[in-house]
Amino acid sequence: MSPEPILSTIPLVSTRHAACSCEQLRLTVEGEPVRVSICHCLACQRRTGSVFGVQARFDAEQVTTEGASRQYVRVSDEGEKRAFFHFCPDCGATVFYTTEATPGIVAVPVGAFADPSFPAPTRSVWEERRHLWLRLPDDIEHVS
Ligand SMILES: [Zn+2]
Ligand SMILES: [Zn+2]
């Protein structure tokens, strides 16, 4: 009998790193995201400068941050729940945010990971604000 390979007893927890454009503000996550979603709302379009936002949500305990950040408080399209965006004071890129609607959860814009192999979004929200040319994956969950 051959002995069990030692590696098989070590839990496989992936560690990923996100950063702002100048990499002064950095973030590390341990483990897989709770959810990855696309948001088409106009506020996400303005925040990202893109035509939709893609964000990965993690439990706050999975996340550690390093570096200086400033906060911008945004009222959602519904005008009720607030979101707290943390961005680099030097380059302005948002690296993480929290919302009143999801206590204990930290959202990270997927682009901040600069990792094309990051897990794909499984949910699409605010589709009434979607740019009409944009095609989504066939198996994505649609939430209006
Ligand atoms: Zn920066
Ligand atoms: Zn949005």
Distance, first to last CA:
56 Å
CATH topology: Metal Binding Protein, Guanine Nucleotide Exchange Factor, Chain A
Shape: globular
Largest sheet: 5 strands, mixed
Order of helices and strands: EEEHEEEEEEEE
- Structural class by secondary-structure content: mainly beta
Query: Hetero groups bound?
Result: zinc ion
Helix content: under 10%
Supply the number of helical segments: 1
> Approximately how much beta-strand content do the residues carry?
35-45%
Oligomeric status of the shown chains?
A: single chain
- CATH class, named Mainly Beta
Spans of at least 5 consecutive residues with low confidence: none
Give the C-alpha Rg.
Answer: 17 Å
Write the CATH architecture name.
Beta Complex
Task: State mean pLDDT (0 to 100 scale).
Answer: 92
* Count of the separate structural domains: 1
The strand line-up of the biggest sheet is 9-4-3-10-11
Using DSSP, what is the number of strands? 11
How would you describe the overall organization of this protein?
- A five-stranded mixed β-sheet has the order 9-4-3-10-11. A three-stranded antiparallel β-sheet has the order 1-2-5, with no helix packed on it. It has a three-stranded antiparallel β-sheet with strand order 6-7-8, covered by helices on one side.
- The protein has one domain: Metal Binding Protein, Guanine Nucleotide Exchange Factor, Chain A (Beta Complex).
- The longest helix is centred in the first third of the chain and has 7 residues, at 42-48.
- The protein has one helix and eleven strands.
- It is globular, with a radius of gyration of 17 Å.
- By secondary structure, it is mainly beta.
- 5% of the residues lie in helices and 38% in strands.
- It has one helix at 42-48, and strands spanning 15-19, 26-30, 35-39, 53-59, 63-66, 70-75, 82-87, 94-99, 105-109, 123-125, 141-143.
- The mean pLDDT is 92.
- It binds zinc ion (2 copies).
